[in-house]
Amino acid sequence: QVQLVESGGGLVQAGDSLRLSCAASGRTFSSYIMGWFRQAPGKEREFVARIGRIGGRTYYADSVKGRFTISRNNAKNTVYLQMNSLKPEDTAVYYCAADFAGTESYDYWGQGTQVTVSS
Fold first, then answer.
1. DSSP line for 60-75
2. How far apart are alpha carbons 11 and 101 in whole angstroms?
3. Beta-strand pair 10-13/33-39
4. Contact between residue 81 and residue 20 where contact means Cβ atoms under 8 Å apart
């Protein structure tokens, strides 16, 4: 069992930056590929970014590539999402998730943190 708790969301203006954190507890954090997803009102949840177990491989949605950076600190059991040059269309609830098998079928999810970007 893994518990995930996101933090760092808030209300910012377009062009600002935010860093989201996701703290994990439970089974060995480094066993999991970690991902960030988001869901805007009235829309389906969408993939944002993913990072390998030791942080060597990262993948991004085209919509955030070049603006967002995912990273992890396995010693602190935490994954981060640095978000720069935020746009109003980035407004959503952001979730972190843990994938044990590496099949992009995420086993555990956090409760989400709201990010609102005003124009």
1. E-TTTTTTEEEEEETT
2. 35
3. unpaired
4. yes
Task: Scan for tokens 């935020």, then name that residue.
Answer: 86
Give dist(CA 77, CA 114) in Å, integer: 21
Q: Which amino acid is at 1?
A: Q
CA 91 to chain centre: 13
One-letter amino acid for residue 21 of the chain: S
Radius of gyration of the chain (CA): 13
User: Do residues 41 and 24 touch, judged by C-beta distance below 8 A?
Assistant: no
Report the percent of the chain where pLDDT is more than 70.
99
The dihedral sign for the CA sequence 99, 78, 116, 13: negative
Q: How far apart are CA 13 and CA 117, in angstroms?
A: 5
DSSP letter string, 24-36: EEES-GGGSEEEE
- Tens digits of residue pLDDT in 32-49: 999 999 999 999 999 999
